[in-house]
Amino acid sequence: xxxxxxxxxxxxxxxxxxxxxxxxxxxxxxxxxxxxxxxxxxxxxxxxxxxxxxxxxxxxxxxxxxxxxxxxxxxxxxxxxxxxxxxxxxxxxxxxxxxxxxxxxxxxxxxxxxxxxxxxxxxxxxxxxxxxxxxxxxxxxxxxxxxxxxxxxxxxxxxxxxxxxxxxxxxxxxxxxxxxxxxxxxxxxxxxxxxxxxxxxxxxxx
Length: 206
Fold this sequence. Notes:
mainly alpha; single chain; 206 residues
């Protein structure tokens, strides 16, 4: 694993002064809305670690990542709206994907606002939320505004997590990455835990 991280660090380090870096960040952040295996958060965190204390470029990283995420989410929403529930169900293959989609549909009905903003912090939540809000005809204008807020929150938090790792281990970026990944996993665990507590309270109140 250490060798893989070292290679990834060197690959990204070579692109830090290239305009292609921003195209990669934008593209990966966008494609993750339909292809959940795309390492969007990992990419943002790794670049932030390597940028270290370069605040102007950290701000640019957050802005590009947020823009890419918003565009990808709008595409996912459009696919769900155009294809409807049947196409969406076919796109989300596998039992886990279907469970996430069913959860997202139920969440859209109960509290769509918080779903659009926070789903990206849950494993598989971003894809399910984009497709389900489209399939259920969630208002487009409202979706875009809420998703812009969610994408910005995600991009800023991912950039900040990477910047913390980069500041702590300025001369050892791999260690900075490991610290940043631990912080990111902690954030995901906290959001998932809050979701489960909320779901349990909702179920017990019925």
